[in-house]
Amino acid sequence: MEDLELMCPAGDFKALSAAIKAGADSVYFGVGELNMRARAANFGLEDLEEIVEKCEKNDVRSYLTLNTVMYDEDLETMRKVCDRAKEAGLSAVIASDLAVIRYCNEIGLEVHMSTQANISNIEAVKFYSEFADTVVLARELSVDQIEEICQKIEDQDIRGPSGELVEVEVFAHGALCVAVSGKCYMSLVQYNHSANRGDCLQACRREYTVTDKQTGDELTLGNNYIMSPKDLCTIGMLDRLVEAGASVFKIEGRARGPEYVYTVVETYRKALEAIRNDEYSEDRIEEWREDLESVFNRGLWEGGYYMGEKTEMWSGTYGTKATTRKVQIGKVTHYFTDKQVAVIDVKANSFEPGDEILFTGNTTGALYQKVEEIRKDDEKVEMAEKGDLVTVRVDERVRENDDVYVIEEREN
Question: Of 121, 161, 394, 408, which is most buried, counting CB atoms within 10 Å of its CB?
């Protein structure tokens, strides 16, 4: 139980800080384009040292995703990235291409097998244990299959290059691809943008019209978005995955904002601690579920493939089903540490006492705050409006140029 690891996404420094603040044990991120979220925000090679330093300062492990299919023209860049990662002190590289795996082994950089390797049985675990200390199992396995693999790793004493027993990582929360372990070719076929090269245009998430060639009648396939699964949610069965023997729990979301990362990571952190302390209960699960529904989601598929579910897995929508949304207010211009007061330049929408506001920034990460009182020119006011310079009490430190949002209920 003490070795359970919550692995969290970071698409930029805001999300990185949010993940660490919310209780991440490890973070994973991309550099440049050789990762499965090449179209999303990614760090530059020059950011590696700062990322590792920030992680080490907070006792958080750092994982670099180099998990795309590699072409010959990528190999020089891949080696350059791995060398820089090694020099920076990165914890591990997540990969599925043998070119990456072999090179990381050559230079002594720890490897974790990506879900793209589609590891579905103990023989595959044995094979990859020659290269990697952690294996990510295929997303389509049931919890019983996961438990069997974990038990066989222990019974057969399967160890990785470090000499430790191979760790099993499972996908805990976030977007699912309709393809087996994410190996989809639809975007490549339709738009010449390869999902396996991190360039997916998510053709599966859209509405389509089917036309009867004889009559010309059209039928829109959009009511259920039948190629777009709901997001996986294991908050109600996390204890079962722990019992099965998984030790690393991955939160998906490198394309998501810091408020998503903070909320989801904090929620799963609470759940893992509750399991540790024998306080995991239906009442708490319901509270956690509501928190998860408040941020981006395509609907929550609870249990997913792990529980053998086959019905109601389709999203039914193109975008989010989040119960709340963030609306930009303005920016922080100063924070008085002694008084715990932030000065906000209101550049867009208004807000008032009783509202919940959100601060995001590279160091702040994500911080939610209930507005108790608003002051303008040191006088209490009932509303902060566009053009105002106001002060608000904030319990934790925020920074100059942090973005400020008001959280509103969303009508779905």
Answer: 394
